[in-house]
Design goal:
It is a single chain. Helix 1 packs across helix 3 and helix 4 packs across helix 7. The chain is built from seven helices and nine strands, in the order αββββααββαβαβαβα. By secondary structure, the chain is α/β, with parallel strands linked by helices. The protein has a five-stranded mixed barrel with strand order 5-8-7-6-9. It binds hypoxanthine (HPA). The site of hypoxanthine has 13 residues, from strand 5, strand 8 and strand 9.
């Protein structure tokens, strides 16, 4: 058996020894958004350390566990903390949790992240709903023998971010009076922030926001046929757009400040996904 698939099934067994919860929506919480988990009616939690073979993050603010529970009456699994490629894990480990949540039953993947804004009309603290992405600066997570049990060798990427889910998020934002931008997100590997020249290049390529996660997870989820959506918290203007140097602390502080609105947007959108 494909060793990556074998490892995945081992993790699934390990989870199933602890809970038989079947989530509909899988939620990934980005930098500084970890305390969203407080808004979930928790059924059970599993520490990543307790799942055999599961990659565990080393980044401050990304301490890891799965939280299983309900957002109103929608069953969700929430990843409090994700692993990033820049931590040194093979990309197959970075996307293992996404695959695992799908095998637990999740049909929808709701990604969140922190990003740097490149579109000149964006401000720090804005939210951006992804309409598409650029993956070519990050490793493709599907390289290697295809896992036929999960999806096809050459998956179509014409519409990664589901239109119906985008409509739901747009409508919720409007109803809740939360300003939301839309645009294209590019994942770079990090961990260094970009140089101003790199940001100018990305701007010319049509990138609206840049970050260090999400796209590899979205590709993997799309490979498996999940419905995907993503909201990014634009925590800072990208390098060279202001005089300020960038710091992780600044990113976390901005995400924390945006958290109450972000939670509202997330909660109401997940509730509206009940019928999807
Ligand atoms: N660049 C890359 N990743 C980020 C940024 C940024 O400016 N801000 C938050 N995550």
């Amino acid at each position: 058996m494909n060793p990556i698939y074998e490892k995945l099934l081992k993790c699934l067994n390990s989870v199933r020894e602890k809970t038989d919860f079947v989530p509909k929506v899988a939620i990934v919480l980005g930098s500084g958004l970890g305390d969203y988990a407080n808004d979930i009616q928790v059924e059970t939690e599993i520490d990543y350390h307790d799942i055999e073979g599961f990659p565990v993050s080393t980044v401050p603010g990304h301490a890891g566990k799965f939280i299983f529970g309900y957002v109103k009456d929608v069953p969700v699994v929430c990843m409090k903390g994700r692993v990033h490629y820049y931590e040194g894990y093979p990309v197959s480990d970075v996307v293992l949790p996404t695959r695992l949540m799908h095998l637990m039953g999740a049909q929808i993947l709701f990604l969140t992240n922190a990003s740097g804004g490149i579109n000149p009309s964006f401000s720090a603290g804005d939210f951006m709903m992804l309409t598409d992405h650029i993956s070519i600066f990050a490793p493709n997570p599907l390289i290697g023998a295809n896992i036929d049990e999960l999806g096809t060798r050459f998956p179509d990427m014409t519409q990664v971010y589901d239109r119906q889910l985008q409509d739901i998020i747009r409508n919720v934002a409007k109803k809740e009076n939360i300003k939301i931008q839309e645009g294209i997100y590019a994942q770079l590997t990090g961990p260094s922030f970009e140089s101003p020249a790199e940001i100018q290049l990305l701007h010319k390529l049509g990138v609206d926001a840049v970050g260090m996660s999400t796209v590899v997870e979205a590709i993997t989820a799309n490979h498996m046929g999940m419905k995907i959506c993503c909201i990014s918290c634009v925590c800072n203007l990208a390098a060279g757009m202001t005089q300020n140097p960038l710091t992780h602390e600044e990113v976390q502080a901005a995400a924390k400040e945006a958290a109450p609105k972000f939670k509202k947007l997330l909660t109401e959108s997940v509730i509206a996904m009940k019928e999807v």
